[in-house]
Amino acid sequence: MRVTGTGHASMRIDTAAGSILCDPWVNPAYFASWFPFPDNSLLDWETLGDVDYLYVSHLHRDHFDAAHLKRFVSKKATVLLPAFPTSEMEDELRELGFTKFLKAPNEEVVELDGGLKVMIQALTSPTDGPIGDSSLWVEHDGVRLLNQNDARPTDLSTFAELGHVHAHMLQFSGAIWYPMVYELPQAAKTAFGKQKRDRQFDRTWRYIDDLKADHVFPIAGPPCFLDDELWQLNDIHGDEGNIFPDQSVFQREYAKVGGTNGVVLLPGSVAELTTGACETSHPVPVKEFFANKAVHLAEMRDRKRGVIEAEKASWRHPEIDVLKEMKRRIEPLLEESIYLAKGVGGPVRFDLVGYDGESVESIVVDFPGKQVRSYADEKVRYRFRTERALVEHLLHTGEVDWVNSLFLSCRFSAARIGQYNEFVYAFFKCLSEERLQYAEGWYDEHERTSDAEDITLGDWVVQRRCPHLKADLTRFGIVEGDQLTCQLHGWRFDLASGRCLTSVGHKIRARRADAQAPAGEILG
């Protein structure tokens, strides 16, 4: 099996029974804020895109690059389609010209022509990617590969049960806006960023230990930020709180926990995999490349400046009455929302900075009141500040996912009262009837599902499944004193009260191990 690195989470997998191109991303994403690093735009994409199969893990725009898919990927390719709850991915791919689809049953091995075997695990929580994420397992001639990209399954046992894995590709770096955009003192941002960076690595080590593959490939990050306004987000400034460490940092941190089997893929790197070895060749020396990272970034910034400026010139739509259009689009969804609206529990304010850089229009999405209106000088749970032109563009294009556009762009600042609230972001990811109905149904089902099984962690008896996204706490739960941390997403709980310290809601059931169990409680 040959794996060619094609940048970020993208790779081409070649076997004697066929080739698979995964997640090709080249064009800037999220309002021209994210670019692949190292630069992959100069690869021979005409050749790389001439494949038998296409796999796109999910609809995040650093995985689903519509312009690139349309221009460079063969429409003769069969799309390996995850079993997502909505038809959005298939619909978008059909619009790009793809006509052949293999709708893979979830977590079932499918044998393709020539003995090539694949299995796709689809994650379907409203918080998994933009309504869904997935991982791809591939086997041919005894060689097995897991492309986990940036999916976060509760465990990897489904893949491990299929046989020993030889190559494990997974995310290790940040792909979020927290804590950089929050209006906090710099010392607090650095502290929170360091915590997040450490949690990212802890989660990665846990996945690696779960699968115990022969070779580990750090992929799916980090992006680079080439706009001068976002340049400080690149991990080249000695900031220990930067959440975007690169592959060279992964190798260094992995070595600290005993890791010796890490393999870095640059765009154009080729790894030849067998059941007993991995031989890798690179277009340039890897250590030397990352030692000169700042130089490479500066050169790339100069080449891409025109692209960024062209994107910025397309954002303004002064003909749009933002308040009127937000009311038209969002109020019907607020009326239908039960769980998300209740979860947000208060008004959310958008401060829109005008073209002059000074004037501000403040608009409130009032979740309890089920309306969008002008700000009335009241307290709000969340406040976002961004350029009016960005929201104009979202409304002009009919964007249904403001998370997979505005928020991931990091082109905003935020403030909040109290804890993180996942329902705020879940709602703004679901600005369509289809998405909203799915999310409401998912939360309804999970609220009504009782998690009765308990486990013992240290001095505490707790429910086995994390209240957040049902991670198995026997694998991801760490107890320190009276606090439990679920390492899958870093959520923390106060065990004495059961209160979630990370977000509103999501109370955990817990008691001290030496306390008597309540009548009728089931112990695992």
Report helical residue fraction.
25-40%
The CATH homologous superfamily of the largest domain is termed: Ribonuclease Z/Hydroxyacylglutathione hydrolase-like
Q: Kindly state the mean pLDDT as a whole number? A: 93
Proportion in β-strands: 15-25%
CATH top level assignment of the largest domain: Alpha Beta
Structural category is: alpha+beta
| Quaternary form | single chain
Strand order of the largest sheet: 7-6-5-3-2-1-15-16
**How can the largest sheet be summarized?**
8 strands, mixed
Which stretches are poorly predicted, pLDDT < 50 over at least 5 residues? 519-524
What CATH calls the topology of the largest domain is: Metallo-beta-lactamase, Chain A
**Distance between the ends:** 42 Å
Question: How many DSSP E strands?
Answer: 27
CATH architecture of the largest domain: 4-Layer Sandwich
InterPro entries: RibonucZ/Hydroxyglut_hydro, Rieske_2Fe-2S, Rieske_2Fe-2S_sf, SCP2_Rv3818
GO molecular function, one term: metal ion binding
Protein name: (2Fe-2S)-binding protein
Domain Rieske: 461-524
